[in-house]
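Dear Dr. V.,

Thank you for agreeing to look over these. As mentioned in my earlier message, I'm a first-year student in the group and I'm still getting used to reading structure tokens, so any feedback on how I've presented them would be very welcome. I ran two proteins. I've put each sequence directly above its structure. The first is here:
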Amino acid sequence: QELAKQVQSDNQISSDSIPNAESRIITIETDRAKIEVNTLGARIRKVYLKNYKTWYYREIEDSTDFYDKHVQLVNPENGGDLNIIFVTKDGRLVNTESLGFDVNLDQAYYKVNSDDSLKVVFTNQFAEGKSIVKSFIFYGEDYQSKIDIELNNLDDIISSFRYDVVWSNGINFVEHNSVDEANYSNASAFSGDEQVIVDASSVGENITKDINGKVDWVGVRNKYFAFILAPENPHDEGGAYFEGYRKEIPNIGTREYYSASLKVPFNNQKYQKNTFYLYAGPVQYDTLKAYNNNYEALYDFGSLFGLKFLIRPISEYILLPLFTFLHEFIPNYGFVIVVFTLILKFVLYPLTKTSYKSMKKMQLLQPKIKEIKEKYKEDPQKVQKETMKLYSTYGINPMGGCLPMLLQMPILFALFSLFNVAIEIRHEPFILWITNLSAPDVIYTLPFKIPFFNVNQVSGLALLLGITMFFQQKMSIKDPSQKALVYVMPIMLTLLFMTFPSGLNLYYFMFNLFSIIQQYYINHSKADGELVPVANPDKKKGFMAKMMEAAEKQAQAQKQQPKKKRKF
């Protein structure tokens, strides 16, 4: 019986109509994972990662069941994944997910040691001399497996000069906060030396993407884990195709699912063999980079107003290496964050010192500015001119407090992104009530949700962070017209940070605490306790002063021009 006759008209293959299409599960345990494969479809049925626990594992700490405690990556909805799809010459679609395969192994369980490997060969021989062979090689200490696909005498069956290798069911959602996990979920391809991302950003949205040409790999990910499928020899006539959607599941939360397929050129020959690699593991930068195939592009370092080229190098080459280096000496990631923050404050000290000194001088100058406003209250232009003259006399740049802060923004935003996605802090405890640095440290749940912010959980670190923000504002803002900001901003930001991971809030809390100490020291420093006129105030004028002078000259020139008589 030919394979084409096994295909139903609705493009689905019925396993009931295929002889010997029975399901048999084989478990392969390596140092990194327990992997279940299914003879039905020769599919990856489940992947349990031995080094990563489920979010609820503490609730079943006494349980001896391995499968309840560890992260499982394959979406269980359709019983497995990694299928071959092609179109027959009579126009029917074949998907191997429901084909029965023979396997070369007799046992149901195999243990692969660190320096060893295991080859699992699945064969579907549907006619004499015609077969599909899918072979997996699992390695003892590797998240990546090798896959060989062999097509024997299918040149008179496969049309379109292509077949697809498909990961069709996305990746399993494994975090407690599914909305946060969905925000970081997407599919992508590495093609033309860049990552092409496919992301359904709104509920109900269906998105597709078609790529033609050489593709180094395709991948689907959630917040912390990923599947990556890569051809051993990417072909210029290959490509990739993606489908994805985002949906809201009642009483569960938001989910995103993506299908990613590699287009493989079919040479229309009697025998064809193609080799692929399947990575199933954590989105951890060093782990991904070690494969030397640009897998690390999957790591999301974030971007600032689209300035990914600025944010990524800061995180990739400075912040993340420093963070992992500190952990080699400090086992608790919470204390790593504290020390990390202290080092960062030390590095940024020259910028923050300049900013605080400038703000302090501006505060000391406020009484004199107030006098000018009272004296020339009928002449706004004179007020501006005298104010700029005052700045020049005391060598103050009105932008001096803002510019150093702006220079710090790329670093602060890079840290914001890093602590949101760093798998290193997933489920890592700190002290006291802070038991998971990758999730909010909830100390109380309100019986209602706060309007606009849509939060009902109270984070202890967010409250501490809000207190430090209040003291910072109190120390910085002296203008009576801005006193409302002392209270409004800390409250708004506290509510905003209620849903942030406790590791991120710990960083900002410590950063603010060190900043308060630094600002207190500078504000009470005798060296900066009074305003001192500069020796040559006109020697080097600031940008604002030059702008004001130019505006004044232009205004005087307009006054000196003779008025033209108007004709009626």
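The second protein is here, in the same arrangement:
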Amino acid sequence: MKIQDMEIIAQIEAEENIAYGVNDSALSNDRATAIDYYLGQPFGNEEEGRSQVVSYDVQDTIESALPQLLKVFVAGDKVVQFDPKGPEDQDAADQETDYVNHIVMEKNEGFKIFYVWFKDALLSKNGYVKVYAEEEEETEEYEYKGLTDAQLQMLASDEKTEVLEHEAYPDPSVNMDALIQQAMAMGQDPSLIMQPMLHDVKLKVTEKKTEICIENVAPENMMVSVEVNGPNLQDARFVQHREVMQLADIAETFNKPLEYIKSIMSDLRDTFEEESNARDIYDEEYDRALQSDEALVKDTYIKLDGERHRVVVLGNTILHKEKMECVPFACITPMIMPHRHIGRSYADLTMDIQLIKSTLLRGQLDNMYLANNGRYAISDRVNLDDMLTSRPGGIVRVEGDPSSGIMPLSHPPLPASSFAMVEYMDSMKEKRTGITAYNQGLDANSLNKTATGVQQIMTAAQQRVELVARTFAETGVKELFKLVHRLVRTTLTKPDIVRIRNKWVDVDPREWKARKDLSISVGLGAGNKDQQLTHLMSILNMQKEAIQIGITSPEKIYNALAKLTQNAGFKNPEEFWVNPANNPPPQPQGPSIEEQAIQAQKEIDAMKVQAENARKAAELEERQRKDAADYELKQRELAFNEWKTKLENDTKLMIAELQANKDIKTTSMNIKGANPDTFTNFDEYGQEQPNNALAGLVEAINANMAKLVEQQTMNHQQMVETLNRPKQIVRGPDGKAQGVV
């Protein structure tokens, strides 16, 4: 074992010796005595032959206070409300409120948790709950028939899925001969064609989920350092939860071999015997002592070098150690003792009253017994067996005169003050606890008292119960919800889909903010349910008038109706009323007839102005287009005229050049004796012969002339078509026309 571990264990043992808990004999004795009084166990001073009746004042008080306290917390749809950090945080705070309330009240059966928690506090001074995250495996089995290869591969590829049963067979819908022929036609190897298969499988899907768990902890299983002031345990130097666990569970929880756990297990008989024995009505502890596969585990939260650690100890061995941000326990007490962790319980207030009342009742009953079965002085002439048998109509045998053989012994009558003392003790109990015969409906003489007087008594008593409820709310209940919120935010690693207020909601705790501000909404109000009903009805009547002058809203009226519904005992107000906050925003109301007429006239005038502006803009645009077109036409005409003049000049030059060439050739032919008109020459014999060269030259010149004229004509036609085609106005960056294309 490491020296560091030995030092930690030594420090834990030192804290155990001075902490509140099982090593505190006075505290353990008080708790065990309170349990005995609650169960109506004998006091130990009973005498044989005398009355041994026990009054159940402790039990009656606790069981009368418990319904009133529970109703305050579980009657509504939410216990706490997380406060937003700003206007933009309102929706997130509302969602976190709904989800955390859902975890506490729905997933963890909050009513059961609160019932045991409150009863522990009312009976044993302090009540404790533990909050922790637990990873659970959910397993479901599915059967599929006729899966294809791809479908089976897709399902089986999931690491969460395990194939339990599998049967494969050829797909009857596939023609293998056709597939083989098709493969051969495509030049493929037919041996590579695989037979498609179908599969019937049975799968097991295992999914791991992290659950937030809340469990009650018996007060005798807790140890708390004595320096703690009040119920809050977050500043405690030392807190320990002792729990008896089976060895197999210990090995599984802390991932240790079972043999190793057996080798270091401790004796579980060394702790919480007194208080556990007090609860042992049917010899449960005796039966547990017969179990040999259990051991005591000490889940300890201790500050080491200024940092809080969780240290799990079995025997003298540390099984687990980690740093912790907080202590996962929430504590409540009905009456806080200043500067102390251990408070006072209802049992502390009523145990002495139960003892006194039981003593008075025993005396009253003994006196009645003596009145019904008095004591007698008898002589030896009386049959002793007949005298010892007391029954109606019984015969006592006497020798001689009975009056001289039997003499009744007188005993003092029952004093009237005895009954008055019992009533006084009841009134003392009511003053101490606030639990009266009126709010229990047990006073038969209430009708003989004035309504105002009874109401004053009930109001004063109700305030004491409400004070206990407020104490619970502002201490342990608030701390419980803080712990759950922190644990949800730090341990849940994926979104969750839950049904809240009859709607499916996506919740992603990874986006939550760390919140320290939360207000308790426990439905505490003045008076009983009838009084609260009267107040709510008055508020609703005033809201009807207030909404006319704008000092209330539909949301505020809905809140009053929700409280009214909860006061009637219905948990979910949305079953009866529609929350205006969930409605779409109202559509704006239409204008009046006068406003519509004015608006229509404005629209007509605007349309006239718009039409006039459009007409002017069209005229301006048409004028600009026409001017641009005229300008472009003039430019084209000037260009055409220039081209025409140039063409005429070029033609004249070409004709002149051709004429010059013709004159030259004519001269040449004349010199040689050629006829320029017929393109012939005279040979040496004086015969006229055709001059092919000259004729070809002339033909080429004429062809070029014709081609040139044709080209000029086509250009002229294209220019005319260009001038006559539709024009498109080109505008500049300022919107003004710059030309036509």
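From my reading of the second output: DSSP finds 20 helices and 19 strands in the chain. Confidence is low (pLDDT under 50) at residues 441-454, 522-527, 671-676. Does that match how you would interpret it?

Kind regards,
E.
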